[in-house]
Each structure stands twice: as structure tokens, then as C-alpha cells.
Design goal:
Order of helices and strands: HH
Number of helices: 2
Strand content: under 5%
Number of domains: 1
Radius of gyration: 37 Å
Shape: rod-shaped
Oligomer: single chain
Number of strands: 0
Distance between the termini: 125 Å
Mean pLDDT: 83
């Protein structure tokens, strides 16, 4: 009789333990969803990507300006050569 009684006690304690554990999981999930920490992390990550994008755009604009300047210099040089040939 003693062994069977111990089994039932163990089972009931196990059920209670699992019930508490599941409640803790649910509470932690609810806490995680509402926590502002994740939101701030997402905002920081979004800011970092935004700054990277703007940096890339700025670099691209600089490159375009440089190539435009080089083309302008090349055109001026070509015009000078044409005018020198016409003068000769």
C-alpha cells in the first residue's frame, strides 16, 4: 500500500510542477512581447541600417560628381584640341 501511495503523490506533485512551469512560460512570453527592450533594439538596428544606406547614397553621389567632373575636364580638353587644330 505504501508504494502505490507514493506513486500517486509523485504524480500529483509532477502535475503541479508542470502546471507551474507552463504558467511561467506563458508569463515570460507575455512579458517578452510587451517589453520595450526589443522595440528599442529594433529601433537601434533600423537606425543603423538607415545610416548605412545614407552613407552608401552619399558615397554614390560623390562618385557621380567625380565622374561628372572628369567628363567635364575631358570635354574641355577635347574642345581645346579641336580649337588648336582649327587654328593650325
Amino acid at each position: 500500500m505504501g508504494k502505490q501511495h507514493n506513486k500517486t503523490i509523485k504524480r500529483s506533485r509532477r502535475k503541479l510542477y508542470l502546471k507551474r512551469k507552463n504558467e511561467q512560460k506563458k508569463a515570460s512570453i507575455a512579458r517578452k512581447e510587451s517589453s520595450p527592450v526589443k522595440k528599442t533594439v529594433k529601433k537601434v538596428a533600423a537606425k543603423k541600417t538607415a545610416t548605412k544606406k545614407t552613407a552608401k547614397k552619399a558615397a554614390a553621389k560623390k562618385a557621380v560628381k567625380k565622374t561628372a567632373a572628369k567628363k567635364a575636364v575631358a570635354k574641355k580638353a577635347a574642345k581645346k584640341e579641336v580649337t588648336k587644330k582649327d587654328e593650325e
